[in-house]
Every structure is written in structure tokens, then in C-alpha cells.
Amino acid sequence: MTAKISLRNVSKQFTVRPGKKSGGTATTLTAIDSLNLDVRDGEFLTLVGPSGSGKTTLLDLLAGLSTPTSGEVLVDGQPVTGPGKDRAVVFQQYALFPWRTASANVSIGLEGKGPDGRKLSRRERAAKASEYLKLVGLACFEDRFPHELSGGMKQRVAIARSLAYEPDVLLMDEPFAALDAQTREQLQEELLRIWRATGKTIVFITHGINEAVYLGQRVAVLSARPGRLKAIVEVEIPDRDGAEDIRSTPAFVEQRHKVWTLLHDEVRLAQDAGHRKILPDGSAPDEPATHQTPERSAA
Fold this sequence. Notes:
Layout: E1 3-16, E2 26-40, E3 44-48, H1 55-63, E4 70-75, E5 78-79, E6 87-90, H2 102-106, H3 122-135, H4 151-164, E7 169-173, H5 181-198, E8 201-205, H6 209-215, E9 218-222, E10 229-234, H7 250-272, E11 289-290
Parallel strand pairs: 3-8, 3-9, 6-7, 7-8
Antiparallel strand pairs: 1-2, 1-4, 2-11, 4-5, 9-10
Helix pairs in contact: 3-4, 6-7
């Protein structure tokens, strides 16, 4: 199957501002190192790794919110040079405008000109917003404001907003992390249904091994920092459409254990190297120092 997304020997470094304990010299942190990864067209890929392994940095590179220090990020064979309407991002935070209704929040991405140069009318935008709110199970909530919605409903609105301008790729950064367990499982099922209905390519970041195995066709496992691709696990579990609780099946438990085994040592390494985190004063003591004044700082 053709690769929709390709990362070719991608590395990302950040220059950290000098801190009081660093002697006035800048430090360089390598978040991702020499990472190669292909995501197939229409695939649901989940990505796990210990804290600090560069998961969100990788998503920023795919979204065009950041550029690699070396290597290249390709979508449909073309270099990613910035954000584009072929890619949408769903963040942990809902980022809804409190003064807009659910419908108006969903339609905000439709207010500019489309790929054909045409601007949709207000009625057309409302119709499309209604279509995608229905897709995420909020058909009767178009006129509700965010404060009138539960956390799960707010995240559904955020997903509908990302889908409304019809991107090819959906990038999701732990979108269910703040939800309770019951709502999280419900939205996992909803997301799989939406993926099947739309055929989008989805890259989904999570800290949860169960979530990664349940959602992903493949699970990409990152190493402790600097993030490298340690392994890709092909998920082979029963049909998720059935009435059976597949999380309790031997096949699911086996796949979960496989990912846990790959991730366990990396989590321990990240914990043991806790001193490598950026300190409150901006220094990173065990990172190599660079002896020039940084043009800008990043944390």
C-alpha cells in the first residue's frame, strides 16, 4: 500500500536558553534522532513512548507546526513546509470558542476560501457543520454552547471541527487523556466508527497501551529520549465491531503484552534519566553545550 506519510531520517533539536547553572552557555536537546517511518494511506497508526520521547514533537512536525533539524517529512510524496488543509490536528485541550455554539465552532474552519477558491455561504457552512456533528453523535446539539456540553461532547465537537474541512490526515495528540475511563472507551469506539466511515489516515498519540492496541492497526513504539523508532507492532485482534469485549480476549492480552514489553525498558530508562529533563532555570545539565548565543529559545 502507498505511503501517505513518510519520515526520512528525521531529527529535531531544540536550543535551550542559558540558565543560571549553565554558565551562560546554550544547551542543545535532541528530541528525535534519525527517525524513519511510513504511514499507509487510510491507516490508523497509534504511537506510544515514554514521557519525553518526542511524541508531540513528532506530531508538530507532521502538522507543519515545526520543521526538522535534519531529514524530511513527506505527505503524498511532497515535503511538509507548514500547516495545510490536507492535515488536521486534535489536541488534548478542546480549544473551543466559548461564545460560539457547537455548530459555529465546527464551521470556523470553513469560513475562508476552499481549495477551489470559493467561499461557502453561511447556510452551506451550517449544513456541513450539522453533517459532521451528526457523524460524531451530536445531531441535536448544534445550538449548545461549550459550557452546556460534557467533556466528552466537547471533544466530539473538536473532532467534528477537524473533519469538517475534509483533511486527508487526522493527527491526534492524546485527545482522550482528560476524560474518565467510561467516556474514553466510548469515544474510542466512536473514533473507530468515524475512521471506517471516512477512510482518513490517522496518527494517534497516547500514553495508554490498551488504547494504542485497541485503536491501532499498527503500534509504533518510540525509545526514551532522544526518540527513535524502536519497533512497530502489527495488531492482530478480533473484529472490533463485535459485541464481545475484545480487551478481555487472549489475542488482545497477547498484543498488549508485546507492546508493554517493548515499552517497559524505555519507560525505566526515561525514569532513571529524570535529571535529563529541562530544569526550571532552563538548563539541561547532561546535554552537550553549544558555545554560541541562541537566536531563539525553546523549552
